[in-house]
Amino acid sequence: MILDHVWGTKIAMVVVDVQRKFTLTVPDWEQRMVPAVASINRFADLFRSYGAPVIFIRFEGKSHCDYDKDDADEWLPGIEVRDSDIIVSKRNMSCFKNTNLYDILSENGIDSVLLAGMLTEFCVASTYFGAAERDIFPCVAKDGLISYNAGGNNAAEIMLNVAGMDLIRTFLAGEQPEMTYEERRTRRPFSG
Questions:
Q1: Cβ-based burial of 115 (10 A; exposed 0-12, middle 13-18, buried ≥19)
Q2: Mean per-residue pLDDT, 37-43
Q3: Which of 48, 93, 160, 171 could form a cystine bridge with 6, CB 3.0-4.6 A?
């Protein structure tokens, strides 16, 4: 569902598993990866420009994709990680399971997350619902996801809260209009 409002007071960007080890051996891999990487970088730059946290999740261990080259743990080509970004390591599908991600978000007063990265149907979706279970409002970055299945991102736009660049910019700038009590009561999307 495309959002017109971000719920919460402070948001962080969480970029999930954008590593070479998850490179897919499908003919349209480049068409999936290249535009998503560009979008992830634009969202991350926007967050950094407002001093909002950008958190990269790095999966440790072997991937279910058959990528076994020496550069498997490196970021995808073109991903821009800055010294100011936070890196969290994980070994499970959800970025919350057995990591310090929740602590980092809590310590920074974060009550909303924008998720980007890969793979949409697995680690991103798992983290989305993990955030909701922890009363953190989850949304995913429009055009900032890489799916395992060709239609995975289309399914995500039906099932998950999706936020575009303009909405996130408005929220970060503190320009999102207040909602009335009735709007909050009747329009609150699933958050846990």
A1: buried
A2: 98
A3: 171
Decide: 128 and 19 in contact? Cβ < 8 Å: no
Cβ 13 vs Cβ 44: under 8 Å? yes
CA torsion 134→172→170→176, rounded to 10°? 60
Single-letter amino acid, residue 96: F
The CA-based dihedral angle spanning residues 122, 128, 130, 132, taken in that order and rounded to the nearest 10 degrees: -150
d(CA 35, CA 99): 29
For residue 62, what pLDDT band results from cuts at 50, 70 and 90? confident
State how far the Cα of 169 lies from the Cα of 136, in Å rounded to an integer: 19
pTM higher than 0.85, yes or no?
yes
What is the DSSP code (8-state) at residue 20?
G
State whether residue 19 is helix, strand or coil: strand
CATH of domain 11-187: 3.40.50.850
